Amino acid sequence: MTEGVYNGEPYAYTGTPVFTLASDGSTINIESYTVQYQSIDGGGYSSENAPTDGGEYLLTISVPDRDDLPYAGSQSYPFIIEKRPVTIKVEDKVMTAGEPLPAFTYIVEGVLPGETALIGEPKLTCVANGKTAGSYEITVDLTGVSYTPNYKAADPAFVKGTLTVNPAPGAGGSSGRRDDSSEENRSTSVKAPKAKIKVTGNNVTATTTAKAVVDGNGEWVDAFNQAQLMDVIDNAIKEAEKLGEDAIANVALNVEAPADATAIQANIPKDAVTHASKAGVGSFTISIPVGYITFDSSALSELSEKAAG
Question: Using N-to-C axis directions, what is the helix angle for 226-243 and 270-279, rounded to 10°?
Fold first, then answer.
């Protein structure tokens, strides 16, 4: 008799019983015997058919006391059908900043098809407001949730999910013409990280970094906002001015992403390209974990003209 985990199928003994005499251990041939399965944990099960549900049982094989047989006896074998462990897994969600928060959902891993493992509904919550880009944890509250008789909580009982809020298209920028020298037009609700400055000879390079996020199509997209780009351009120009007329201002954008993200979509607002070109930026480099691309001043000028058209 083997033990096991609840799988929706009966757990029965296998093989053929062998009967021996208790007096001398010799084997005897018995074709008529009974089999009985019964609960020993208060489950109330008693049948000649093997049980299916989880619980503690006793299998008894007996040779009944009969007038036509000179012997009788029985042997019992305890066994357990363990409850099936299940894990509540919260499904990851992706949205764009400014949209309504999506409905949070979960799946129950380990439950058999057509069966129910939970009594009650887990409560899924997230601190995201839907307005600020970033990654947010979707948490699980199992207060009031229990399990149906054949199921139990696995270890872990649940796995949290992640809500990825992608920046809205053109976040922080204006769709119309603007005065590139106006600080008011460059303002945004997103605080731009401070650019890092490196000076090599007459070259000044201002670098800023952003983490790539996954958009609604499952593609990796850079998370630079317009205020961040304007800030790194302005810092490059200001530091170059300190070195004199021969100094060259360069801008570098580093995109942080997982090593397996071999393709990343770069969205650079046209106002940032125009500002970089007009300000006289010497080079504009976008780097991802697997490579980089650099636009020189001529390429920036051409891109600016196309954007304006």
Answer: 10
Backbone torsion region of residue 119, taken as left when φ is above 0, otherwise alpha when ψ lies between -120 and 50, otherwise beta: beta
In angstroms, the CA 240 to CA 250 distance is 9
Tell me how many helices (H) and strands (E) the chain has.
3, 24
Q: How many CB atoms lie within 10 A of CB 177?
A: 9
Tell me the backbone φ, ψ of residue 243, rounded to 5 degrees. -85, -15
Percent of the chain with pLDDT over 90: 42
Distance CA 8, CA 29 (A): 35
Instruction: Tell me the whole-structure pTM to 2 decimals.
Output: 0.53
pLDDT class for 287, splitting at 50, 70, 90? Answer: confident
**What is the reported pLDDT for 42?**
93
DSSP β-bridge partners for residue 70: none
User: Strand, helix or coil at 180?
Assistant: coil
Is 92 in contact with 166 (CB distance < 8 Å)? no
For 224, counting Cβ atoms within 10 Å of its Cβ (0-12 exposed, 13-18 middle, 19+ buried), the class is buried
244 φ, ψ (degrees, to nearest 5): 115, 180
